[in-house]
Design goal:
The chain is an alpha+beta fold. It has 15 helices and 19 strands.
Length: about 500
């Protein structure tokens, strides 16, 4: 192509790709378009359009092989097979035309410029195909999150081995990953952050607590005040979990009773108290599973678009990592990563993210777990009259002896006659009530309540057996006689295998 041809201009109306057309409108100059002869519209030089195409192809396309691979070649040589081979992809001129939404004439001019740029002296002679060769074929390549994975691996090693707290690199990386959660959605426009609560599809979660002792004292105490006993533990009793560090109290729940039971892995012979906790306000939850289907809309001509695609791919990979089964011995180390992510997510967004939905590793199918972060994990306490006596029982005596019966009774004191007013103390000293230090410390909580236990949902499950779901594989075992071959001077000794001797 001559220098004059490279100076040809193309207007925004001749470029159908939205991003490119808008860029020409914004940055082009009013001049004669050499393709539609309109002289009143913004234009750019055809060489500038070639620059844009070249950059987009470097980021999003790859040239396909002009020859069949070994397997395909073998199939072609097999005369008994009716196999035809064709080159993958799209011929380069049409790939350019479709990518930029231009006609064949514009695409051909762009191709000629790019072919000259990438021509290598002598390549025609040896028959080698170069980039943007007129006979080449191209196909779109998927995003590669390699850089994200490498950076994540480095941060993971740092968290596990060097700096667990105040890790600046981890904070910066997590900001890149989760800083715009509210903008992430799937192809149907459904956000990865879902609302749950009284006016939404998700209204409640189930939570269970196992009692391993045959003594009734613990379960009786839980039956009296299950709102306290099967809700999130006090911070001093909060053990480290998949989404919380030691001492950080959060609410773990499940979408259904069966999953709630499976998640606590109760041993045979134990008893489990299970209840449904209803959301009393709208809570914003990150759906970890939805991270696998994040859809990024954009243009291949936008240099930032490839980064967004790579991020989306890595988020899908990370969602799998966050929900993968972890062996008990590995939990302290492997949970560091998910704990770090949960801590970060709990601090981003306005309004803030209240928790995370994630798939259950104990129950197959579409069963979900939830973690409500500390700020959103408070359970509304039941209003029990201060002078009421609460009795709970686990069995009932009858003429046949006794039978299992779980029940709770609140005994209210009898109505008393009003007492005469006691004399007033001087200076209003009678207005001060005795200070109950224990009650204040035990039950004061400045957080807004998010959950409420439904008393009618309570059930006690006696664990009589555990079902294990497995994939089984046979073990093949053989015995072979080993033979030593004669050693030849200047060579290595060779050992071989003889026949299978069996067992």
């Amino acid at each position: 192509m001559s220098d004059d041809d490279e100076q040809k201009r193309v207007c925004h109306n001749c470029v159908g790709e939205a991003y490119l057309s808008e860029a020409i409108t914004k940055n082009g100059v009013i001049a004669l378009c050499d393709y539609c002869n309109d002289d009143e519209e913004p234009t750019i030089a055809i060489a500038e359009l070639a620059d844009e195409v070249e950059g987009a192809f470097e980021r999003h396309y790859e040239r396909t092989s002009p020859d069949p691979d070994d397997f395909q070649s073998a199939m072609l040589r097999d005369k008994e097979l009716d196999y035809d081979w064709w080159r993958e992809g799209e011929q380069v001129v049409w790939a350019i035309a479709n990518a930029a939404s231009v006609n064949e004439v514009v695409a051909q001019d762009v191709l000629e410029i790019l072919e000259e740029r990438h021509a290598v002296a002598g390549s025609d002679y040896v028959g080698e195909e170069e980039e943007f060769d007129s006979d080449s074929y191209y196909e779109e390549k998927g995003a590669n999150d390699y850089n994200f994975r490498m950076e994540w691996d480095a941060i993971e090693r740092s968290i596990k081995e060097r700096t667990r707290f105040f890790n600046r690199d981890a904070d910066a990386f997590l900001t890149r990953l989760f800083g715009n959660l509210n903008q992430l959605a799937n192809r149907q426009g459904q956000s990865v952050v879902v609302n749950a609560g009284p006016d939404h599809e998700i209204k409640s979660f189930y939570r269970a607590r196992a009692f391993h002792s045959g003594d009734d004292d613990e379960i009786v105490r839980a039956l009296k005040r299950p709102d306290r006993e099967i809700g999130p533990p006090p911070p001093r009793f909060a053990r480290a979990g998949r989404m919380n560090a030691q001492g950080i109290s959060v609410f773990y729940g499940a979408s259904d009773p069966e999953t709630a039971l499976a998640e606590i892995r109760p041993p045979v012979g134990s008893r489990v108290l299970l209840g449904r906790f209803d959301l009393v306000r709208t809570a914003r939850l990150l759906d970890v599973e939805a991270l696998r289907s994040v859809f990024i809309e954009g243009s291949i001509f936008d240099p930032d678009y490839i980064g967004h695609l790579e991020l989306a791919q890595f988020l899908g990979r990370l969602s799998e990592r966050m929900t993968m089964p972890v062996m008990p011995d590995d939990e302290p180390k492997e949970y560091l990563i998910t704990q770090m992510i949960a801590d970060f997510v709990a601090q981003v967004g306005e309004p803030p993210i209240d928790g995370m939905l994630y798939g259950s590793v104990q129950s197959a199918g579409e069963h979900q777990n939830v973690v409500m972060f500390n700020h959103a994990s408070r359970v509304l306490e039941w209003e029990v009259p201060p002078n009421a006596e609460v009795d709970a029982r686990t069995y009932e005596m009858d003429e046949d002896g006794g039978s299992i019966d779980y029940s709770v009774i609140e005994w209210l004191p009898p109505d008393e006659e009003p007492k005469p007013a006691e004399p007033k103390w001087p200076f209003g000293l009678d207005q001060f009530e005795p200070f109950d230090d224990d009650a204040l410390v035990s039950h004061y909580d400045g957080r807004a309540a998010t959950l409420q236990l439904d008393p009618k949902s309570l059930q006690v499950h006696h664990v009589s057996g555990v079902t294990i779901a497995t994939d089984s594989y046979d073990v093949d075992r053989h015995r072979y006689q080993r033979h030593a071959f004669p050693k030849i001077a200047g060579s290595l000794s060779i050992e071989g295998l003889d026949e299978d001797l069996g067992f």
